[in-house]
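User: Can you help me understand a structure? I only have the sequence.
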Amino acid sequence: MQEKRNKRLAVIFAALCCITAATYFFGLSDGTVEVDKNLFKDLDFKEIDQVTLASKQGTVVLKFNGSKWTVNEQFNADASMIQILFATLEQAEPKRPVSPSIRDSVRNLLKADGVQVSLFSSGNEEMNFFAGGNEKKTQAFFCTDDEDATPYIMNIPGYRVYVSGIFEVPENDWKDKLVFGFNWRNFESLEAAFPESQDQNFKMSLQDNYFGIEGMTSIDTARLNEFLDDVSLLTATAFVQEPVFKDSLSKPPALMSIAVRDIAQRTYILELYRPVGTAQQIPGLINNQQWAFFDPEKVHEILRKRSFFSK
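Assistant: Let's start by predicting it. Here is the structure, written out as tokens:
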């Protein structure tokens, strides 16, 4: 009896092995295949010096000019945002292909409403793909530009994050919030003007290896240096796309304007205005082209008139 039982168990064991093997084999042939984790990152990201993000909302060109990243060749880029971008590119992996039943619709969705990501090195395109996601932004999809390309569900191992989010960031959010960012090696002068009290205007510059105010002999140097530090570290709270004032007629006189010039004769200008309506943030115009809002406490530290520096 025991011998018969052992034979029966052996047959059952062999059958189970066959079933397991068949299940594995047919599972693979049914589309459960290993995905190439390097599908969208098979390149040296250290060599990338331009990233173009094109969508219906517009095109953002992030470019390295040899010393820093710029946004559309007009503004300095936020260094932390650039770090997040490349960290995403380096770590994002395909989790699995999109289900065959919805591949066409996802591919069409990405090409119509997604972001086309193009990576360049020395002017040569190294990679091009579309990024986007579902309506609730709970799944991120990448898809190459090929006509019959397969979209993939993307993730960053160990994190629950919407991978495509960094590519959907609008232009303003890529810009460095630091307004001047000058350093003492390239600083030449600073001019401050007060349209409503012009007798308080002043100009700071290097005089006999020390910073001074033209026309003033008795200066509180501690206040002067603190002021220059506060100006150099001033950051905007947020950039805004639309002008704060509709036109030049509705724009009141500025509270203060600051013009910083460096040794290369480049001038950076900031005009500050009173809050509009019930708003608490201070509106400002940077280089006559970009409106932004500023923290009132930070503005208070630089809203200093000529008499403030008198000893």
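Now, to help you interpret it: The chain has six helices and 17 strands. Residues 45-174 form one domain. Let me know which part you'd like to focus on.
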